[in-house]
C-alpha cells in the first residue's frame, strides 16, 4: 500500500541562514490492511513523515509510492496538487492533535460534509454523523455549536470522528489520543480496530505505548537527526 524510499526533508531558517534536517534516508513499507506504529523521541521527525505522506510537506528527496484505488501506483512526492486533493478527499485521512476547520460551520455539519464527500446520500450522511458523534461521546448540545468553543478534548474527538467516518483506505494518525481521558482513548481504539478489520491501512504516532499494544503489526523507530547548524 505504501512504500517510502530514502525520504529526506529539511527546513531552512532564512533569517539565521541555517538548514535543519528533520528526516534523512527514511525507508519502510506498509502492506495493505496493516498498522505501522512510528516511535521515537520528540524532534526525531515522526510528524514530518506523516505530513510528507499527506502532502503537507514536500521532501527534498526520496519517494513515497502509494497504491491508489483510483489513480493507480503514484509517487506522492511528485504528485500534482489536484491529485493530492483527490486522494485526501476520497482515500487518505489524517488526524492530528489540532482541529482546523472553516468558521461558522457546526460540528454536525463538519461530519456530514465529510460523509457526503464519499458519495453517500444526504439521509445516510445525517444518520452516520449522529452515530459517530454519539460513539465519541460528543454531547448532543454541542452538535450545532461551532468547534472554536470546544475544549481541547472535544475538538480532538471531533477531528477523529470526521476522519474515521469516511472509512479511508489509508489513515494517518498523529498523536490522536494526546489529550484524551481513558474512556475516550478506548473509543478511539475501538474505531481503529473496526477500520483495520474493514481493510484500512494505518500509520500512527503514539507516545502512549500501552495504547499501541496489540494494535500495531510493526513498529518503526526513529533516530533523531543531527542538525548541521552551519549549513546554508
From TrEMBL:
Gene3D superfamilies: P-loop containing nucleotide triphosphate hydrolases (3.40.50.300). Keywords: ATP-binding, Nucleotide-binding. The keyword Ion transport does not apply. SMART domains: AAA. Residues 2-232 form the ABC transporter domain. InterPro entries: AAA+_ATPase, ABC_transporter-like_ATP-bd, ABC_transpr_LolD-like, P-loop_NTPase. GO terms for molecular function: ATP binding; ATP hydrolysis activity; transmembrane transporter activity. It comes from the Bacteria. One of its GO terms (cellular component) is plasma membrane. This is Phosphonate ABC transporter ATP-binding protein. It comes from Ureibacillus massiliensis 4400831 = CIP 108448 = CCUG 49529.
Amino acid at each position: 500500500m505504501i512504500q517510502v524510499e530514502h525520504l529526506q526533508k529539511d527546513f531552512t531558517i532564512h533569517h539565521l541562514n541555517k538548514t535543519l534536517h528533520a528526516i534523512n534516508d527514511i525507508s519502510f513499507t506498509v502492506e495493505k490492511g496493516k498498522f505501522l506504529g512510528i516511535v521515537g523521541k520528540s524532534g526525531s521527525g515522526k510528524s514530518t513523515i506523516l505530513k510528507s505522506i499527506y502532502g503537507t510537506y514536500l521532501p527534498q528527496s526520496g519517494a513515497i509510492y502509494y497504491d491508489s484505488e483510483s489513480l493507480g501506483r503514484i509517487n506522492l512526492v511528485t504528485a500534482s496538487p489536484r491529485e493530492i486533493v483527490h486522494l485526501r478527499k476520497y482515500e487518505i485521512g489524517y488526524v492530528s492533535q489540532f482541529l482546523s476547520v472553516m468558521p461558522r460551520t457546526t460540528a454536525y455539519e463538519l461530519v456530514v460534509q465529510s460523509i457526503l464527500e464519499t458519495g453517500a446520500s444526504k439521509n445516510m450522511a445525517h444518520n452516520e454523523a449522529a452515530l459517530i458523534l454519539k460513539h465519541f461521546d460528543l454531547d448532543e448540545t454541542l452538535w450545532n455549536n461551532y468547534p472554536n468553543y470546544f475544549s481541547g478534548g472535544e475538538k480532538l474527538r471531533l477531528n477523529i470522528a470526521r476522519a474515521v467516518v469516511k472509512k479511508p483506505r489509508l489513515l494517518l494518525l498523529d498523536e490522536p489520543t494526546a489529550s484524551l481521558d481513558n474512556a475516550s482513548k478506548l473509543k478511539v481504539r475501538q474505531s481503529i480496530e473496526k477500520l483495520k478489520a474493514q481493510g484500512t491501512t494505518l500509520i500512527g504516532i503514539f507516545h502512549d505505548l500501552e495504547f499501541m499494544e496489540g494494535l500495531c503489526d510493526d513498529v518503526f523507530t526513529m533516530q533523531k537527526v543531527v542538525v548541521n547548524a552551519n549549513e546554508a
